[in-house]
Every structure is written in structure tokens, then in C-alpha cells.
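Sequence only, no structure available. Ideas?
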Amino acid sequence: METTSATNHEKTRSNLFENVKVRLMETAKNTKKIGEDDPRRIFHSVKVGFTLTLVSLFYYFRPLYNGFGQAGMWAILTVVVVFEFSVGGTISKSLNRGGATLLAGALGVGAEYLANLCGERGEPIVLGLLVFILAAVSTFTRFIPNVKRRYDYGVLIFILTFSLVAVSGARISEIMELAHQRLSTILIGGATCIVVSLCIYPVWAGQDLHHLIASNIQNLSASLQGFGNEFGDVVSSKDGRDKSYHQIHKSVLNSKATEESLANFAWWEPSHGRFKFNHPWKLYLNVGSIVRQCACQIETLSGCTINSKPQKIQPSCVKMSMECGKALKELSTAIKSMWIPSSAVAVHLNNSKAAADELKNIMENYSSLPSEADGLQEIVPILVVASILIDIIKFVEKIAVSVNELSQEAGFKQPQLLHRGIVKPINDDDQVVVEIVDTPERKKPLRN
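Reply:
I predicted one. C-alpha cells follow.
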């Protein structure tokens, strides 16, 4: 019995160690994957650690500690709460915290001075009334969309700081020194975060938003072209091939919160690269909104099941899907390169519209379509797919219009063509002369 018990105990311990080992391996793999997916996260972690070490000098060095005392902890706290992943996020929180602290500190000192004029009995009443009014009004302003989007954190800090200064001022005589120390350390902490965020491997929210919108449009393009290949029997549901394009567009559906957050942070960022201070970030949100509406249509399209593909309408559906996908690909490339969309977008849209008109004529005039579709149950899904594709064309056209507007407002450049002109082979005895005409004014003969 004792031997069996000991054996069971050893097995339990072995299983426990094995489970711990497996979990540690999984944690290590997940951690590695997070770093590999976006190496900027590693740099961000290092920057936060470096900044915290830097501001902790207020405690490590006696001269700095004597100047600020316990208030030096506010610098450390400021770094922890305001250092965001992007430059815009860090600047936003730093300026919100600094400005709110300055304003609330000044009002707190004024409230304390006013309360002192009312005597010992009236002081707590006046302070309580002022705290109530300012806290209630400030909290209500947080419901205003513009305030909530850009200054919500600042309003929150304003309420906190004013309440602390006003209430503590009723018992502490050195209120001016308290307000000065707290404001100074907060400004130092915020300024340190901004400098480190700007100077050491900066992460720009504007660039992330720019690439996110282009990537979302590219995902829609891949989904539509994948559907066109499937409908055209290039990819069949029976051959077991990869049909991941049915999932590509799903990430677009949930991108609204990320886009709005990046646009808000980008608004605070200084000029960087080709992104100017007054870059039209709102237009990116307009493009993103239309892209999500188009993704909803593609989501509906991906849920349609078609068992038969009538030869009369198959080419039109394939052409509509493929041409829309090509148009979106051109728009995505234009955004990534910050170029004005080329005329190819209009060509693809016109081709898709022509296919849609052809499909409408077929559906109206081809009376034998139901018999070819082998019954009503077969024709209904086809009609649904055709209707959805026609709606997708409209959304792609809206995306093209919004991208053109963005390119004009953001100052995108004309696309650079590597080869442009007419090639003319000319017989010249035993030699061949190739004449490349780039422009009407320039002719350059090449002899081989």
C-alpha cells in the first residue's frame, strides 16, 4: 500500500511539473510572438523603463530631493500614466495633464483665498460649494463629443487636482508651495515623456492610421478577387483549396475604434515626414467609414452559397467582382504611396458598371434563366449575389471619391511612371533603331 501511494505521489508530482513546463513554454511562445508581430513594442517598453529611471533621480540625488521633497513622486506617477505607445498619445496626455493641473491649481488657490475671506465658519461652506459646482460642470462637459474625444483625460485631472488643492488648502497653510511643487514635477515628468517619445524610435499614430486605411482597402480587394475566382470556378469549394479570403475582410468590420483613436492621437502630433501638422485626419475616418460599409456587403456576400453557376450570368458576376477588387487595389496602392489615384481606377469602375448593366439586361430579357438554374431555389441565391455585387460597385465608387478628396487635401503627388511613351522599331539597313518618345518635346533614338 505504501509503495502504491508513493508511486501515485510521484506521478502527481511528475504531471504537475509537466503542466508547469507546458504553460511556461506556451507563455514564452506567446511573448515571442507579441514581440515579433510588432518590434516597436519592445522599444516602447525600453523607453518607458528609461524614462522612469530618469525621473527617479528626484529621489536618488539629495539636491533634487531637497528641492521637491515628496512631491517628486508626482513626476514618476506622471510618466506611468501619460507615456503612451504613440507620440500623439503621449503628447495628448502630457498636455492634458499639464494644462489641467495648471488651471486647477490656479483655481484651487483662488478658491482658498475666497474661502478665507468668509471667515472660519464660512470657509468650509464656500469650498464645498465651489467643489460641487466645478466638479458637476466639468463632469457634464465630458459628455460633449469634442471634449470627450480630445480633452477627456484633462477634464478628469482638472476635477481631481482642484478637489485635492481646495480641500487640502483648508488645513495646509503652505498651499502655494504645494501647488508649485506638484505642478513643477508634473510638467517635468510630462516633458521628459514627450522628449523621449519624440527622440528615441518615435511611433507616429498618423502613420499607423494611414497604413491601416490602406491595409483595410487592400483586404477588401483580396476578398472580392477571391470571390471572383471562386465564382469563376478558379477556386472551387470542393477542391479543398485555401479559402481564407472569406475571413480577410472581417478585420475591417471592427476597426472603427482603432481608427478613431489613431486619428485623435494624430491630431496632436507635430509635422513628420509628408504628414503636415494640419493633415486632414478626418478624411481618413470618412474613407474608413465607407470601407466598413463595403465590408458589411462583402460579409453578406461571403455568406451566400451557390451550388450552380449559370453560364449566362457567370461572366458578368466574375467581372464585377474582379474589376471592383482591382479598383480597390489601385486605391490602396495610391494611399500607401501617397499618390493621386491613377486613371486605372476609373477604368476598372467603368468595366464593373458595364458588367452590371449587362447583367441587368440578361436578368430582364433571359426568360429561360429559371429553367437553367433548375428551379426557384437555385435562382434566388444568384439574384441575391448579383444584387449585392451591384451595391458593392456603388460603395467602391464612393471609396474612390473619398480617396480622391483625401489625396487633394493631403497634397498627394502624381504617380511616377518608370516607362512612358511609344516604342517604334524602324528598319535601317542592318541596324534596328528603337525610338522612345517620352513627350512630344523629347525624342531619344537608341541604336543596337
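Residues 2-37 form the longest helix (36 residues).
Hope that gets you unstuck.
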